[in-house]
Amino acid sequence: MTEETETHFSAARSVLRIVMTSPNPETNPETTTLPAPSLPDIRNETRSTLAHQFSLWNQPGYRLEQLLDWLYCRRVETWDAMTNLPKSLRSQLASVWSLGALSLLRKQGSKDSTQKFLWRLKDGSLIESVLIPANPALYGDSADRHTLCVSTQVGCAYGCRFCASGLDGWKRNLAPWEIVGQILGVERWHAEQNPSEKPTAADKISNHRLINNLVIMGMGEPMANYDNLMMALRSLNAPWGGGIGARKITISTSGLAPKIRQLADEPEQFRLAISLHGATDAVRNQIMPVNRKYPLSELSQACSYYLERKGKMITLEYILIDGVNDAIAEVKPLSDLARRLHAKVNLIPYNTVEGLPWKRPDEARCQKFAETLTRSGVTCTLRLEKGHDIDAACGQLRLKTERELAATSAITGSSIDQPEPES
Ligand code: SF4
Question: Which residue has the higher pLDDT, 195 or 290?
Answer without folding.
Answer: 290
